[in-house]
């Protein structure tokens, strides 16, 4: 059960739509009197879903995206890659702030189910939100996803300290980041921005460092959540991409590495 302070921290943020804040109040009341597997909240043109079993974690994840705006950027007419989509809060945020197309990747079954439900409500209202039931890595392969008892902790590369929290394994397909970037560039029109978010619970080092720097040309903005158990540092990721024009705009107050493309060569390519 989320603390009153955590709930209030979302309810008091005016950047979260009033309809969403009222929906959170209704969901909090319903959880006590008539719980359901997932609670729908209106956000932007569609709906997002908070699961009953992971409600506290889902609320914190939504707060991180929508209230704290940790991935704040210019999304106007942008193509957005959502790598490690969880239940779709970032994809919904990007579309609500003007993105033209979102492509989300999520390997874990329960998260993907609610991600797809959310994307379907956006598509019903004309949004272009594609979802793929797969993980992302440096190379295309089949792999094993380690499923934890917290919905945001599923990972291909768990640290040893996480074994006590593991509740299962899932076979997953892994798509290569280099292929995903090439596909995304074909979706851009003219000089539309390409924005990428990577939150993959420790797999971020392989995704970024294992993909040639030149493949990232065309990305305007890159957000990477660098986890404490990752095998690389944020500085190493920034150094890898610096030769193709990325500048580190990260804040010391944020856990997210934010890289912005500086040079003209980084403009997305026309199909």
How are the SSEs ordered, and which strands pair?
Layout: H1 4-11, H2 18-33, E1 38-43, E2 46-51, H3 55-67, E3 79-83, H4 89-96, E4 101-105, H5 109-124, E5 128-132, E6 135-137, E7 141-148, E8 166-176, H6 177-187, E9 194-198, H7 204-209, E10 221-225, H8 234-241, E11 246-248, E12 256-261
Notes on the structure:
- Helices cover 32% and strands 25% of the residues.
- By secondary structure, it is an alpha/beta fold.
- The protein is globular and about 55 Å long.
- The chain has one domain: Vaccinia Virus protein VP39 (Rossmann fold), CATH 3.40.50.150.
- The model is unreliable at 264-271 (pLDDT under 50).
- The longest helix has 16 residues, at 18-33.
- It has eight helices and twelve strands.
How would you briefly describe this protein structure?
The chain contains 8 helices and 12 strands. It is of the alpha/beta class and 271 residues long. The chain has a 7-stranded mixed beta sheet with strand order 5-4-3-9-10-12-11, with helices on both faces. The protein has a 3-stranded mixed beta sheet with strand order 6-8-7. Strands 1-2 form a two-stranded antiparallel ribbon.
